[in-house]
Amino acid sequence: MNQVGHIFAKDARHLRWEIAISLALTAGFAWFYPYNFMPHTWIDQRHAAYPEMLGIFGGMLIALAPVAWWVLMTRLIHTENLVGDRQWWVTKPYEWGDLLVAKLLSVATFVVAPLFLAESVMLAIGGFKPFEYLPSLGFNLLLTVCLVLLPLMAIAVVSSSFARMTLTILGIAVAVVVLVMVAVQVAHGYAFAAPMGLWIDLVIVVSGLVAAIVWQYAQRRVWIARGLLGFTVVLLGVAVCLASTSVEIGMQYPRRDAPLHLTYDAGSPEKTFTQDTGAHRVGLTVPVVVSGIAQDALVNLDSVQVTAVAPDGSHWTSEWESLWGARYDASSKSELLPIQVSDEFYSKEKSEPLTLQLRFAVSRMHRVGRTSISLPTGEIVVPGFGICTPDVLLHGDIGNLNCRAALRQPDLTLIGVQWSDQECMYRTPDSAPVSGDGWAGEASPALAEFGLSPVFGINLSLSNGTRLDSHGGNQGTRYLCPGTPVTFTRYALVGRSEYDVTFADYHAPTMPFAMTLQLH
Amino acid sequence: MNATIQTTIRTEGLTKRFGKNDALSGVQLSVPEGSIFALVGPNGAGKTTLIKLAMNLLRPTAGTAWVLGKASETMTGRDLNRIGYVSENQEYPEWMTVGAMLEYLRPFYPQWDVALERQLVAGFDLPLDRKLKQLSRGMKMKAAMAGALAFRPALLVLDEPFSGLDPLVRDELIEGLLDCSPETTVFLSSHDLSEIESFSSHIAYLEQGRLLFSEEMAVLSERFREVTVTLGGPRLEGKLPGTWLGVEATDAVVKFVHSDCHGEATVAEIRQWFPDAKALSLQPMPLRSIFLAVARSERAGRAQRGAAQERRPA
């Protein structure tokens, strides 16, 4: 007899209502969630009475569908409960391997496959061809299995009832919150793309969960399985606590030839200013001259570690801190580099010339493609980036671009546009356009991001979208006109490296009086 | 016991400890093939624990239980297709109808006998379309019994199968048991001594986790006699034989249970103790009386040993 099929058929019959509810919620999620990411033009075509409500409903379903999966999976596993010695089935000739495969088959059939279909439908609604994204879809589902379904299954196999399982989940939620708080404390200020530690943590979690599930099915020794899960949590905690930023930077950013050169520009006309960033830190800007960047290359300063040395030899060293927006190309010349020092060190040494020893974690990128198009009023499909929909205003002017990507943020892309100061219908041939640009995407995105929705909105902020007077006052918005050029320049990661530089004789700027009061 | 007789269940030093409590202590037991072997004893004696160890529902602290030639701890699902198991406190798939349960079980057992299944369903008068949760306790036990007998198991394990059932259902279950094939070994635990006396071939007695005896029912019945001696001379003096249980003596009469009776030899032995006896009567005992005598004697012995230990200087 094929036990797998026999058990599967029995479960499908027994849990038909749970399965039906789960499928209905998943289908509803696929149908209504697009109201959250699709442009108004698409929503208007639906002629829905209350489109905002439908979007909220879709948002509720994205939370309810996992609850339905949880109930279904728990009932599925508890039909052949693995905890206790009074169950009917344990005295019947079940083969544990077949039982485990039957349960996995049920989860795959009634949870994973419908989710795959739902994501494919949402991709199709979003304008993406699902077959072109099969590897990403597969990776996304793998993340969902590892981070949602596997933990639920592991808890179910060591719980005797739904109530006990719920309590266990609450307990684990508290433990995870504590773990995250510890991790935040340990890794203070440390953040950059795809840290390796997360993958190590994922491997620990998945290994521990799989071991506990297989062990429990093979042996039904619940305390050992619970011990395995507990050990996994402890191991995860240890891994998080031992995660050393320096080690991680050392592994991901080897010392090699720097893709840029920075020199301290003491005579820069650029204003340097100071601000209190909170957390006992003072933000400073260092004027630098950028050089040595190859054509078509882009250099991103991901993180920095600052050591400030006073003339008397006293010094202060920061943690590795993220640097947001420190991104340079061959055209970059004079820039202001944002750094932070402790408020105590600043107060003591602000009048002294300092030596700044800066260690940078640097990502090197190379231009891989450039797409130039004439701005239409309809959707723009940008290969390798996503789909953008112009936000068409009353008279056919375009206010902005709403872009979406499939399963992950796109590669790092610079979007360039030509703004018009006048509404498009009043634009004259001699009106000078104003350039605007904005960055979108990530330097090295994973194959897919974790999430139930396969379509991501792209956060796009284009510069110069507002007319300003000479004092910085708002003079109104600018417009994008149909037919004007839009460029999408995509960059791909070439490599990472560590870059050390020392700036001597740096004079920290004086903090404004009001901030000084705050500081003290 | 004849050494050539195959054993279906054999335990060697089987011990199970829950925390500091010994539920079973070094139990040595042999259940011969084809026997109807009753495991009896008071509540908490360890009967269910022994059965669960044999069925690999619990792991022994020490020792081994061999079931159908395999150590119970190593039994897999495949080994269970020759073993039927029914327990009074099992969690059944209450959502299934009787028919669905039998239909579900059928493919698990290659040797499932559909004709026998029909016969059992008819004999037990089982409503196939009723869900287990809608059945009375007795009907549920009958449904479970049908599922355990229909594949003609080599071993049928029953844990308190008759507990709390009305006499009619009990009779039906026992009938079902007796109808099962002669090569099936039945290993059951029960409180119901009068019931098992009527059909068991072997019997074992557990008391506080220890096996006090295990033997054929016929031998046991022969071994125990209720002895009444009408005295014609002086009262009984000296240390009495250990085989005399629950001795009660008045000026005129001595009563006790002889636990190792061998016909005339025993009569002669008793007469040596009471040479002036006016009358001597040795009566066969029902199983219930035998167990009461053994249990009381065991408890009295334990109390004496405990008192002796307390008196012993530290």
Which descriptors apply to this entry?
heterodimer, A: 520 residues, alpha+beta, Immunoglobulin-like, 12 helices, B: 314 residues, alpha/beta, six-stranded mixed sheet, 14 strands, 32% helix
Report on the structure:
The complex is a heterodimer of chains A (520) and B (314). Chain A has helices at residues 3-14, 16-32, 40-46, 51-78, 96-125, 134-157, 162-186, 196-219, 222-242, 245-252, 343-349, 513-519, and strands spanning 261-264, 274-278, 281-291, 297-309, 315-317, 321-322, 327-329, 334-342, 353-374, 380-382, 386-392, 398-406, 413-420, 434-440, 455-458, 466-468, 474-477, 479-480, 485-507. The radius of gyration of chain A is 28 Å and the shape is globular. In chain A, 34% of the residues are buried. In chain A, strands 4, 5, 6, 7, 9, 13, 14, 18 and 19 form a 9-stranded antiparallel β-sheet that branches. In chain A, α2 (16-32) packs antiparallel against α4 (51-78), α7 runs parallel beside α9 (222-242) and α8 runs antiparallel to α9. Chain A folds into 3 domains: 1-133; 261-364 and 496-517, Immunoglobulin-like (Sandwich); 376-483, no CATH class. Mean pLDDT of chain A is 85; it is low at 188-194. Chain A is of the alpha+beta class and 520 residues long. Chain B is α/β, with parallel strands linked by helices. Chain B has 9 helices and 14 strands. In chain B, the strands form 3 sheets. A 6-stranded mixed β-sheet of chain B has the order 6-7-8-3-9-10, sandwiched between helices. In chain B, β12 and β13 form a beta hairpin. In chain B, α3 packs antiparallel against α4 (137-149) and α4 runs parallel beside α5. The radius of gyration of chain B is 23 Å and the shape is elongated. Classes of the chains: A alpha+beta (520), B alpha/beta (314). The interface between A and B is medium-sized, with 22 and 27 residues.
